[in-house]
Amino acid sequence: MTTALPVDLSRRSVLPLLAAAGLALTSAAMAQQPPGDEVYRPLVGQEGKDVIWVPTPDVVVMRMLQMAEVKPDDLVVDLGSGDGKIAIAAARSFGATARGLEYNPDLVSLSQRIARQAGVADKVSFEHADIFVTDFSKATVVTMYLLPQLNLKLRPQLFALAPGTRVVSHSFSMGEWLPDEKARLNNADVFLWRVPANASGSWQLVAGAVNGRLNLTQKFQVLSGEALFGDLRTSVVQPVLSGAGLNFQLREPGGQLARYEGRVTGNRIVGLVHRAGQAPLPFEAVRDVDPVPLLLQQHDDTAAAAPQRVAHAQRHIERRRAGAMSPR
Ligand SMILES: C[S@@+](CC[C@H](N)C(=O)[O-])C[C@H]1O[C@@H](n2cnc3c(N)ncnc32)[C@H](O)[C@@H]1O
């Protein structure tokens, strides 16, 4: 629902009322207000260090945070936080701790003021920072609205995050790293990825009386591979890697298809194997040699991404800019 506000009300008088009225009204109402406050009013489309400032629409912010399944124990980091709306919504609507990294110091100060007015200054912090040289390794959720080439440039930092960290991007994808979930609303795409554990390499598998070797190949979160049981070589069936969670099936030497559910922690996978007619049994797999880092295993698609994605990004930003300037 969109709630129109009288245009002659100053932002100073409106914000405390909105804060008291709750987030649904706040976010809908904010969409009707010119951005900024009495101290600083940024212009939609103004230059930023690597990308201009365009705020994510409120409905898209909510969808991003819902797709990331943000919870109170999360640390949400918005890369290029603009006026702070994503970080503030993460704290207000989902109870998370949030951090915004923004290169423009005026936007940093503005977002700090808005966070104070929204009553979440104890849960949200904003820093004057360049996202490419700032440590955000403690994030459990990363949000961004940047550009395709910037997403690609960020991939090494994102792949260094703990397995299972959720990454959500407004509008722009991540090259060959395909999303785990995608949505389209309000003329915008939203992409979600879960940072995968590194499950590639050769593993010694022990699952009750069954002993074998698992050889796994990984491209981003997509796995394939085979298992060796003596002279029997059989494919790993439907492997699914989600963060550190790893599920797959194996047709074992006895001929039955067993279902494995495990978690990758460093060079160990532990979990349960489910065999028809039997209670689940613990299994373990151990990798004897450290794996090649995932990013070194990927085809570098940075250059290939450039022309088409940049053109798409420019069209998108022009539409957003035009939308922000047209009368509502
Ligand atoms: C498209 S806006 C998105 C703002 C906010 N995340 C949102 O979705 O509403 C991108 C923001 O990134 C900031 N920015 C650009 N390059 C940056 C950099 N290298 N480090 C930090 N912030 C940057 C810009 O100033 C701008 O505020």
Report on the structure:
By secondary structure, this protein is an alpha+beta fold. It has two domains: 36-195 and 302-325, Vaccinia Virus protein VP39 (Rossmann fold, 3-Layer(aba) Sandwich), CATH 3.40.50; 201-292, Calycin beta-barrel core domain (Lipocalin). The chain contains eight helices and 16 strands. It has helices at residues 11-21, 23-30, 58-67, 85-94, 105-117, 148-159, 294-297, 302-325; strands at residues 75-79, 97-102, 124-128, 141-144, 166-170, 181-185, 188-194, 201-207, 210-219, 222-229, 232-235, 237-242, 245-251, 257-265, 268-274, 281-287. The protein has a nine-stranded antiparallel beta sheet, with no helix packed on it. A seven-stranded mixed beta sheet has the order 3-2-1-4-5-7-6, covered by helices on one side. Helix 1 runs antiparallel to helix 2, helix 3 (58-67) packs across helix 4 (85-94) and helix 6 (148-159) packs across helix 8. The longest helix is centred in the last third of the chain and has 24 residues, at 302-325. The two termini are 14 Å apart. Mean pLDDT is 86; it is low at 1-32. The protein binds S-adenosylmethionine (SAM).
